[in-house]
Amino acid sequence: MNNLPASTGHLLGQTEEDIVGTTDLLGHDLNSPIATVISTLDMLIGLIDSDVEKATVQYFLKGALAAARRERNMLFDLLDLARFEMDQYELKLEPVDMGLLLRKCLDEEAFVVETKKVQLEVDIPSGAGLVAEVEIELFQRVFSAILDNIMKFTVKGDRIRVEARREENRLMFRFSDTGRPFSTELLGKVASRAPHWNQRQAGSRTSVGMGLPFVSAVLKAHQGSLEIKSQPAPPLTEFILTIPGLNLTLPEG
């Protein structure tokens, strides 16, 4: 079976191979955050009648919140990817300071960075003209999807660098890390909807759910692009996002 009717094929894929690959990734990746939420709530219920410090409860709640955000984002990434693939997504554009938006997304990842004990370096200059016309909620999930991919495939001591620049009339966002690299075989197709599960089992980095195909679709819809580079030794992976910039300065606040 090579092609499926649109009514059944677009959400999980349009070929049998894509559907199997999508469900393998989603089944694994969606289970991880919801399992964290469930186990955390189980522990908190057990702690209600015990003498625990406020900081301990806060730690568990932050972990559950981070996992819940991941689960929500993956679900909406999948739904919106299907809409983009069917050319049925209508963008709601408005000017936004992309540097501030990226910093907000990094703030939401602070708990994960702290608990994984990775080294984070951020270079987002203020006053650099990082204004673009985008759908804000989509780009919040674009940045989160890239960061989710980085966090999933890095371990204690790995280095992460996030930088933003304006290059003439375009904005560039570069995310780099020293975590697990992509295999050469997968690198060229990881940003498209395709079976990736076997490659992950073989040790390659992959998309997290439909995150990277979603990122690619959103950037394309905004006349932007996604470039992914990865090398095994020394390990270094880069995600380079570019979109058109506006010659506009937004008021602070």
Mean pLDDT across the residues is 87
User: What is the N-to-C order of secondary-structure elements (H for helix, E for strand)?
Assistant: HHHEHHEEHEEHHHEE
Spans where pLDDT lies below 50 across 5 or more residues? 1-8
Estimate the strand proportion.
Answer: 15-25%
The percent range for helix content is 40-55%
Number of helices, where a helix is a run of at least 4 consecutive DSSP H or I residues: 9
Structural class: alpha+beta
Largest beta sheet: strand ordering: 2-4-5-7-6
Question: Characteristics of this structure?
Answer:
7 strands, two-stranded antiparallel ribbon, alpha+beta, 253 residues, 9 helices, globular
